[in-house]
Write a structure and sequence with these properties.
- The complex is a heterotetramer, with two copies of chain A (about 90 residues) and two copies of chain B (about 140 residues).
- Chain A has about 90 residues and is of the alpha+beta class.
- Chain A is built from four helices and five strands; from the N terminus they run E-H-E-H-H-E-E-H-E.
- Chain B has about 140 residues and is an alpha+beta fold.
- Chain B has a single domain, classed as Molybdopterin biosynthesis MoaE subunit (Aldehyde Oxidoreductase, domain 3), CATH 3.90.1170.40.
- Chain B is built from three helices and eight strands.
- In chain B, a hairpin with a 2-residue loop joins strand 7 and strand 8.
- The longest helix of chain B is centred in the middle third of the chain and has 19 residues.
- The chains are: A alpha+beta (about 90), B alpha+beta (about 140).
- The interface between B and C is medium-sized, with 28 and 28 residues.
- Strand 2 of chain B pairs antiparallel with strand 2 of chain C.
């Protein structure tokens, strides 16, 4: 199934605007992002700590709704999901 | 008008349109690129989500502060020193609602809306640190 | 520009001029004749004293809130529904100073500056009750 | 000596914009205003109470500076003084 992962700000600079990936059944949101983030060491380290957990400041959205880090580790992705990964916002 | 766009707007024209029946006070906030030793500011948005969140913030502010109109224009792209970044225009029956509604909208944008800023400087670029959900003030 | 005058002003032009070095936030307050069943509003000032007091208020606000510019235009004479009564434009480095400075100026004008308003209505005229020195809020 | 008394808002509607009056030595500000206000019964009643004291809301200025009611009853006017009498302000 096809999942889109969007990156913004510093994360976009490492991974590009978005990556469309083929995910297998029961893959969690957290695992999918970790898998994709492996493509760039520096990018991975910006998103995950040394134990592979999301760094506290990382914001995750699933189809436009914020997802807590804990929830992301348990929620399986589903066909057509749009995941967004970004650092704290700084608009205004 | 709630918009995330590259183009600037004519504030005078927006003020004119905000003057509808019942309006006694109008407050404009204009956030401007400050000359903190930068060449330019580059803004990026998660556009469709940011648009929806601005609309939600405008809706909440209208209800909570009895605003008669709300306009929010957040610019993206490269902006030079002195250019408008964010324009918020609210109108209300009375001054208190207008000031408080305007401030509420601004603080909500700063804490919630997925927009990022990068300062382009002579000696390198720098992402403006964002507000973490746990930060206060 | 600190002025008590009959003529309206171009807010867009004043905003443009307020954008000087160091400005990151600009707040405009625009007080408008509200359609409270009135035909017109008639404003009267003790002009030379009111002018001096506006200048003093602008000076105090600059100092206290580190404002970079202050414009106050208070109109007098006969004004129709929807017309501008009072325009306050302040600029500052940051948003907090701009909002608080603007509000301070407005409240000071309401409590101190010798200007009076009369509502001209279909069934008679009425002086708008002023703020007594002992009133709070 | 010549003293100018200015009136504003409702008081102006009774007495006109200003009255220039010839005052004698040692006339207090309060007495001078009372004397002038006698010209119009309704105007007098708007400024003074039944005992002849300034109503609490009346604001007095002497040469552009506010004067307390008590002070106005003791301060003699001097040549060239500009006195202003007005109701609470309502600008903004």
């Amino acid at each position: 199934m096809k999942i889109t992962i969007k990156f913004f700000a510093r994360f976009r600079e490492r991974f590009g605007n978005e990556i469309v990936i083929e995910a297998t059944e029961r893959t969690t949101l957290g695992d999918l992002v970790r898998q994709v983030a492996m493509r760039d060491r520096e990018g991975y380290d910006a998103i995950f700590d040394s134990k592979g957990a999301f760094r506290t400041y990382v914001i995750i959205m699933q189809n436009g709704r914020r997802t807590e880090h804990g929830e992301a580790e348990h929620t399986p992705v589903i066909e057509g999901d749009v995941i967004a990964i970004f650092p704290p916002v700084a608009g205004g | 008008m709630i918009s995330i766009q590259r183009e600037d707007v004519d504030i005078g024209r927006l003020i004119h349109h905000a003057k509808q029946r019942g309006v006694g006070a109008l407050v404009v906030f204009d956030g401007i690129v400050r000359d903190d030793d930068i060449l330019e500011l580059e803004l990026e948005a998660y556009q469709d989500i940011a648009q929806k969140e601005l609309e939600q913030i405008a809706h909440d502010a209208r209800e909570r502060f009895h605003l008669l109109s709300v306009d929010i224009i957040h610019r993206i792209g490269r902006l030079s020193v002195g250019e408008n970044i964010l324009i918020i225009i609210v109108s209300a029956g009375h001054r208190k609602e207008a000031y408080e509604g305007s401030r509420f909208i601004l603080e909500s944008i700063k804490s919630k809306v997925p927009i990022w800023k990068k300062e382009l400087c002579r000696n390198g670029d720098r992402w403006v640190p964002g507000k973490r959900p746990s930060d206060t003030g």
